[in-house]
Write a structure and sequence with these properties.
Strand content: 15-25%
CATH architecture: 3-Layer(aba) Sandwich
Keywords: Methyltransferase, S-adenosyl-L-methionine, Transferase
InterPro entries: DNA_methylase_N6_adenine_CS, Euk-Arch_PrmC-MTase, PrmC-related, SAM-dependent_MTases_sf
Protein name: Methyltransferase
Number of strands: 7
Pfam family, one: PrmA
Number of helices: 7
CATH class: Alpha Beta
Radius of gyration: 16 Å
Strand order of the largest sheet: 3-2-1-4-5-7-6
GO molecular function, one term: protein methyltransferase activity
Shape: globular
Low-confidence stretches: 1-5
Length: 225
């Protein structure tokens, strides 16, 4: 797919990595996108939004708090020759729109120690793309609580995260909101630069055993009956 070549304006934007590709692969295998209205939350470079458009979504909206990310999404969508409406704003703004058929999200989910935590969810620097706060759930918790409200009947959420941010807590919160949630895809990957930088914090907080240098990524699918 054309998304593999996306790099425009990526200097200040989260570059597509394994979690992005795992999320896109899940969308491809789900057959949930074609002919449906899709919203990409925390869109970054726009790689997932563009993939949804290429998979035949009837309309795609992308939200991000970073002006760099919005410009990057617009440029990459133009290069890929697909229509994506890129909007500057928090993922919470999705609740101001009519419910979507499909919501996709690669949120900040890395547990970050207090010495490096950026301190505010409104920050738009590079850390904003991965800093999930001390437990990795700074965005995940409110997102999971709000998921049902952003979906139309029969709609689906596809959410990628690391096990270090407590996958079971996400599943529990989504189910409490009335959604049918399950792990849809998984992948084990070596630590990248971000997690290597947080190794001490992960060990100190009991999330990482000595000698472990891999994380498990998961894509959760949550369907609204």
């Amino acid at each position: 797919m054309a998304v593999e070549a996306i790099a425009v304006g990526a200097e200040n934007v989260y570059r597509p990595q394994q979690d992005s590709w795992l999320l896109i692969d899940a969308l491809e295998r789900s057959d949930a996108v074609t002919g449906r209205r899709v919203v990409d939350l925390c869109s970054g470079s726009g790689v997932v939004a563009i993939a949804a458009a290429e998979l035949g979504a009837s309309a795609v909206t992308a939200l991000d708090i970073s002006p760099h990310a919005v410009r990057c999404t617009q440029a990459n969508a133009l290069a890929a020759q697909v229509d994506v409406e890129a909007i500057l704003g928090s993922w919470t703004q999705v609740l101001e729109h009519e419910p979507f058929d499909v919501a996709v999200c690669n949120p900040p989910y890395v547990p970050v120690g207090p010495e490096t935590h950026r301190g505010t969810v409104s920050a738009t620097g590079p850390m904003a793309s991965w800093d999930g706060g001390p437990d990795g759930r700074l965005v995940l918790d409110p997102l999971c609580r709000s998921a049902a409200a952003m979906l139309a009947e029969g709609g689906s959420l596809f959410l990628v995260q690391s096990d270090f941010a407590d996958t079971e807590q996400s599943l529990t919160a989504l189910r409490a909101g009335g959604l049918e949630a399950k792990i849809f895809a998984t992948q084990r990957i070596p630590f990248g630069p971000v997690l290597r930088g947080q190794t001490r914090w992960l060990r100190d907080s009991g999330r990482l055993l000595p000698g472990h240098v891999e994380e498990r990524l998961v894509v959760i699918r949550a369907d609204k009956p």
